[in-house]
Write a structure and sequence with these properties.
2 domains; 4 helices; 4-stranded antiparallel beta sheet; alpha+beta; single chain; 4 strands
Length: about 120
Amino acid sequence: MPNQAIEYLKLFFILFLFIATLYGAYYFSKKFKISGIKNFNNNGMKVLQGLYVGPAQSLQLVKIYDRYVIIAVTKENISLLMELDESEIVGKDGEILEQKVQKNFKEVFDDLLKKNK
């Protein structure tokens, strides 16, 4: 019977260490904000539009502070294709593309419903 009690204590101790390690990792990641997405969104870069041209291949229009670039993205590589002026990214209706992207989903969905009526 004492051997069984010792085995249960070992099991609970290992479980406690595992939970403590998970909590420590969570606390560490929150304290030092180890999250690529949060840090990425706050540094002046924004993907305005993307076009998928094949499996794992796309073209992306990206705003980097006051510059606009088109990049090609594949599994193995990211290539700069060209840099654009703000005048080159104006839509058909004269509205700057970036302003269109800032609509929320509800506004875009409502616009689509109005067009289909």
